[in-house]
Prior knowledge:
The structure holds 2 protein chains of 2 kinds. Chain A is of the alpha/beta class. Chain A has helices at 42-49, 72-77, 95-102, 111-120, 122-126, 137-149, 167-182, 194-200, 218-223, 225-231; strands at 4-12, 19-26, 31-35, 54-55, 59-62, 65-66, 80-83, 155-159, 186-190, 203-208, 211-217. In chain A, the strands form 2 sheets. Chain A has a 6-stranded mixed sheet with strand order 7-8-9-3-10-11, sandwiched between helices. Chain B has helices spanning 3-43, 50-70, 81-109, 114-136, 153-160, 170-192, 194-204, 206-211, 216-241, 246-263, 268-285, 290-296, 315-329, and strands at residues 149-151, 168-169. Chain B has a domain at 29-251 and 264-269. The chains are: A alpha/beta, B mainly alpha.
Amino acid sequence: MTYLIGENLTGGYGGPDIIKDCTLSVDKGEIVVVVGPNGAGKSTAMKALLGMLKLHGGSVKLDGQDITGMTTQQRVARGMAFVPQNQNVFVTMTVEENLEMGAYLRHDDITENKEQVYDLFPILKTKRRQVAGELSGGQRQQVAVGRALMTKPTVLMLDEPTAGVSPIVMDELFDRIIEVKRSGIAILMVEQNARQALNIADRGFVLVTGENRFTDTGEALLANEEVRKSFLGG
Amino acid sequence: MDYSTDLLNALVLITNYVLIPSISYGSQLALGAVGVTLVFGILRFANFAHGEMMAFGTMATIFITWWFQSMGVSMGVFPTALLALPFAILITTLLAVAIDRSVFSFYRASKSKPVTFVVASVGVMFMLNGLVRILIGTDEIIFRDGQKFLIKAGAFKKMTGLSEGLALKQTQVLTFVLAVIAVLALFWFLQRTRTGKAMRAFSDNEDLALLSGINPELVVMVTWIIAASLATLAGVLYGLDKSFKPMVYFHLLLPIFAAAIVGGIGQPLGAILGGYVVAFSEITATYAFKKFIKYIAPSDFAPEGLTQFLTTEYKFAVSFFILVLVLLVRPTGILRGRVL
Lengths: 234, 340
């Protein structure tokens, strides 16, 4: 049984449908990557899982339970964490406050959780009192992932976490994401850097114009001649 | 008399007529502007009803003060209004939350544009304006009691031997002290408490705040409670310092908006700075410097006119001027707030 699955999702932001009959799924301890050309509806499909757009078809199930009718906030409370592509940190607040806000729903002691995030991203510990808006792009991305992890999620969803960061930072971020996966969290990620992302992925979905085109393991997709030619640049 | 006495006289003159009034007026504006800026930061619209909220809170204070006075309750040297203030704050807070539930929550639910909120707040402004005038009338009301002066001009002259007097009203000191306490409490709340941080997070990035599980309705309610409390405090301090006239609070809206924008909209600290900038500019621009120049100028030079930039009737022009200047030169305000 898949932990989080969105089946036959159809919908958009009120206008025409952006995704049609689209299916995405992710299991605990697994990295699933969604790739595809610009405007394929990758981010939209992910937002559909979070209840951020109007669906008029399909259903979303978390841990076997239908959550299609729930608000985004209710889903967050159920363990779904989301790192948006843009504006994913509180720029006027310190790194530490960003993490505290991530843990807003929790009323237990968060010190241990905070230390785990600092262990994962040591640079953040040295910058804990600094305002997040003053950090570099890569560091901000770390704050964003850290904030999401503070909710103690069971599913972590990342919308292009490596957009706008250097290749070195990207590799490092991917390493961290693999570490997070090992702690048993389900990871669903939309990526522009398709080749690198599929490299670390257990499974991948290739979306084209809002529909599933290919679904396979990361390795198989990388080996697939057609996928390589059309989406990975040869 | 030698020149150093002249200089001292000039200093006393400026302190008495510009410095002290500016500090107390600035504190009153600052308290109002913090409320406007908080509402803007959280609800993302300029609340035109803020001045009327001040008038309503002051009216409630006056009614309770009268009731206390009729029962013979007083605070000795302090104004009885201070005793009435907490009750008035409670009433105004309830009103603000009720207005939010009945008016603004509808537009939030329908995700209306900010300009719709602004126009709705203008409607609330007219409604409150009418309500206050129906309940308490349009006349000027002086509700200050207790000791009026801490330092009297005559006594100061006698004590120092200077020809200029310095008067310090109790309300001026009260205004400053209460404003400092209110602002410190507000900053402690915003910086240290869970709900305060949630408010800052919500103001910073609404979508991400929602994704972090911050309850928007709670944040909005707390914002109204703070804005209404500060509005009542500002209104009562202004009324104690001068007098209560419903129309005056409507007029105060302009310098308060100017203060919030000058400081950087959405920035509480900026609103405080802005309050003092506007107050100092307004009072300096409308003060007649003739006597001051006579003191500091060598020998018997005296300017022919009053050397007053603007007559006091035109004091609102100063707010407008500052507003336009800031929007032209530094639209983000002193502390880099949002651009309107």
